[in-house]
Amino acid sequence: MGIETANGEHVLATATGTHAGDGGLVVVTDRRIVFVPDEGTGRPDEELPLAGDELVEWQGDYLTGQVTIRSPVSEVGPVTFKGMPRRDGINLAEAARTAIRELRVGVDADPAAGSTGPL
């Protein structure tokens, strides 16, 4: 996608899906994954900052599927986004893996850099 946000993040992929029963948009940037619920749910955006140690898994059939993100440091356990169109979900999972790999390379190159932390 290559869209740059106002704070310098780059949007890598988006997909529609559900999280905790609400529909919305899942956005992967080079720093985090954000779930933006559909209007009218009254629910705030949720974000998962990427630290470089997450595992991303796609599971699906011919039409739809889900992306699950697992982090060894997460206090809430795995985060799952369901009901994604197959192509969008696969692209989103790969974009998340790419962002995580890039964070690992940055941390490995500069051990003092550490995690990006919450934004």
UniProtKB/TrEMBL annotation:
Protein name, as recorded: YokE-like PH domain-containing protein
Q: Which organism is it from?
A: Actinorhabdospora filicis
